[in-house]
Amino acid sequence: MAAAASGERWHATLQPEDRQRLVHLGHFPDYSSELDWTVGDVAGHLRDSAQVFTERLRRMCTERQPQLADFVTDAPERLAGYRSPPPAQLLRQLRRAQDELLQTVAGVGATELDRTGLHAVDGRISVAEVLDFLPRHQLDHAQQLAAQLRCPQS
Predict the structure, then answer these.
(1) DSSP codes joined into one string, 13-76
(2) How far, CA to CA in Å, does 20 sit from each of 77, 81, 147?
(3) pTM value > 0.85
(4) Do 24 and 45 touch, CB atoms closer than 8 A?
(5) pLDDT digit string (tens) for 81-122?
């Protein structure tokens, strides 16, 4: 969906009524600052989150009790990383990161669902919890992008 953004649309933000509607959904009550992002920021965040969750899942499935760093989505250096690459480059990186995440998720076996890692803020989390969170997180940001781009939501 972010690929539909070009030129000015890359910098589109939510209209106040869309922000008000989304602020109560999904993970946004805890991460409402993400609703102030542009389309490009969301694309960068989805790239980074795909990379972070790919690494977490791989580590949780192979290491014994891995220590998992926090993912600070609005750290200034992270936001700068969302905004620094040209849109076409960022979209290529996003596609690669999402493909890698999808392959990693597809490779998780039923026997690995109970494996855990120790998250720096959230404490012990399981592979099953990560797999439960991911599609809802993607949907939250798809709804955000749809509102920013005024695309019909499916």
Answers:
(1) ---HHHHHHHTTSTTTTT-GGGGG--HHHHHHHHHHHHHHHHHHHHHHHHSSS-EE----TT-H
(2) 27, 27, 12
(3) yes
(4) no
(5) 999 999 999 999 999 999 999 999 999 999 999 999 999 999
Which amino acid, 128?
Answer: A
- Residue 150's nearest CA partner among 42, 7, 13 is 13
CA 76 to chain centre: 17
State the pLDDT at residue 112. Answer: 97
Phi, psi at residue 152, to the nearest 5°?
Answer: -65, 140
CA angle 21–41–106, rounded 5-degree value: 90
> Collapsing DSSP states into helix, strand and coil, what is residue 106?
helix
